[in-house]
Amino acid sequence: MSNQHASSVIMMAVIWSPGTNKNFPHDETLQYLLILCFKVALNTFVLFFWRLSIFKSFLGLCSVTMYVADVLLVSAVMNAWLFKEHLPTSTSMCFILAHGSAVYALLPLPILIVGAFDYASYPHLDTSSSTRCRAVSYSIVIVLLWALACCYTYNYTDTQPMETYKDNMRVLACRVHGSSVVFQFSIHLSIAVGFILLLYFKKKIGWTRKANKLAELKNTAFAPEKDQNFLCAQAGEGGNSEIPLFVSLTLCFASNWMPYLLMGFACALVGFVVPAYASVNLLWMACANSVLVAIAFWFRSDSIGPLRKFPDDTCLWNIYWHLSKGTSPTVDAKLTTKLYIRVHKPTVPFQEI
């Protein structure tokens, strides 16, 4: 394995390997097809849980285009497997895997940078305020990023199969790429989150219990008043000095994304690098979207407050905002209900005399 450029690392993908009969080598195309189908299934699962706000952010729209690219990649590999008797499988598979992995390895860094600028200019971080003009600008930037990545990989990607040795056996392989940006992002983020949680380890369990009770309090916002008072007494008073906002948001992020970060950290410890074409890229995009939302919310928390329509469906940011401020989410719910009743109060119809 050797470095190609800052955003990817090179590894080898076996296309042909010696079978039981040396005169008839084993074709690995079906194996790659199953791996890509499994990846698309996992990305479909992520897409389903992100569906409510996925079109409200730049990273969300990028995830949709990556999902389409995954489906096209599966279709290309399936055609190479179905027509392997008429097409040179080694050449076609090496072309597909090399270009696909190179594009997936190049895109994360510019997507992350543009996504950060997007949230820096996002009005109030509220999805209800997103406009059609913003969606059009998202589409133009995404098309430009894909076009630049495809042009770069078309000119600088080596798609020629080569013979190499694996376990003292000669195999036919091609060069594929893994995304070092995704790898380094997951490692550094897991270290930062773990360090913050360790500093407040003794209080973390109590804060998590309070957050769960606040979430229960929000779900019972329209329950009888005596039940709400009972839950408020259970939740207790937090206080801004007790729970800093950045710690509360970190706890919110860790409660949802720590398994994913630990999985990436474990892969780093054992030296396991996933090729970019096989990585569950929508899972990383959703994680990166949560990170950017948390950072933007932290900087604008004084002016934003506990909004309800963040461009992120995975984390309960408003609950942990209340946890940091020591307030109750039922207050906002009551105000919303009173406003709705005042605006939509039915008028008394005229009666005939």
UniProtKB/TrEMBL annotation:
GO cellular component term of the entry, any: plasma membrane
Keyword field contains Transmembrane: yes
Signal peptide: none
InterPro entries for the chain: GPR160 (IPR042353)
Keywords per UniProt: Membrane, Receptor, Transmembrane, Transmembrane helix
Transmembrane segments: 30-50, 57-83, 95-114, 135-156, 176-201, 257-276, 282-299
Name the record gives this protein: Putative G-protein coupled receptor 160
Native source organism of the sequence: Labeo rohita (Indian major carp)
Higher taxonomy: Eukaryota, Metazoa, Chordata, Craniata, Vertebrata
